[in-house]
Amino acid sequence: MRRSVAIFFLAQILIVSYLVHSCWTLITLLVVDGSNDAISRAELPGPNSGLSVHGKKHIIPKILHQTYANESIPAHWIEPQQSCIDLHPEWEYHLWTDKKAREFIAAEYPWFLETFDGYRFPIQRADAIRYFVLAHYGGVYIDLDDGCHRPLDPLLSYPAWVRRTLPTGISNDAMGAIPHHPFFLRVIDALPNYDRSWLLPYITVMASTGPLFLSVIWRHYNSDGPLEEERVRVLFPDEYSNHPWSFFTHHLGNSWHRGDVRLILWMGSHWIVLTIVGFVVGFAVIYGIWTLYGRIVHAKNTGRGLSLKRRLPFWSSQQEYELVERHEV
Ligand SMILES: *[C@@H]1O[C@H](CO)[C@@H](O)[C@H](O)[C@H]1NC(C)=O
């Protein structure tokens, strides 16, 4: 008996270790908040007092990238789009339509074209193209539903920056980089490997090209200890929006959200219940395996097969354990 218990727990420990190992990056994302790389409000100039971080040159090129299916941008996004164009009169402006995006990938990154064309959801192409243009040209990418609240020029002083999201990870809706920044090179290299399908479209998009994918690569990149000049700096929520000193204003968007997003949002707001249910299910599974395992050991020792009654774990378990005990010793 004692040996079978040991084997049982060893198997459980192996399974749990494997799961923890596979999800390690995700688990660390819950505790790593990126504050070491924060772009602090103290180092930024006030909203009306200059365009450069003190003592630092602008290194990111003055290019604004945005994406949409075609040139006919929906009316509700014209205002945020125009606010960014108006605040950056000297900047180049690129709108990456589906057609331009595909031409660009075909011409410059033909190794990625098959993955690019193969994406099931258009938003995956919209995600991917922003990483490629940042890696290629450098500049600043902004989602169409983000308006600009003050000139972004101070952010041109960092080699690369992304935006922190709550409760965990980073987003891909506003980010900037110099051309060929090692983080974005790593991001584009990783895209084909992450092109996998998960059960729900929302999770598939998040994990293959979206913010979850970017957060995972960000974790890997940071845990390799990048050089000082290759760090990816992080814009925190207060510098992102809602304050007089923030850079952006957020407009309603999420044009690609589907039915399953409601499920995810529901799960987000019921996470305590779901965690408890998860533990109950987890223990039930362990208990089930344990009972089944006990039965098999018992059946082997007695030379009898599993009777119907014994296959139903719940009503005679006490007697069952005693039986197992007696035969094993
Ligand atoms: C542009 O794309 C949107 C979204 O896919 C679509 O609804 C619209 O019809 C397109 N407009 C033109 C002119 O093709």
Automatic annotation (TrEMBL):
A GO molecular function held by the record: mannosyltransferase activity
GO CC annotations on file: membrane
Key words, A-Z: Membrane, Transferase, Transmembrane, Transmembrane helix
A biological process term (GO) from this entry: mannosyl-inositol phosphorylceramide biosynthetic process
Stored Pfam families: Gly_transf_sug
Domain of life assignment: Eukaryota
Classification via InterPro entries: Glycosyltransferase_domain, GlycoTrfase_DXD_sugar-bd_CS, Nucleotide-diphossugar_trans
Subcellular location field: Membrane
UniProt keyword Transcription present: no
Spans traversing the lipid bilayer: 6-32, 199-218, 271-293
Family, per entry: Belongs to the glycosyltransferase 32 family.
Protein name: Glycosyltransferase family 32 protein
Organism: Aulographum hederae CBS 113979
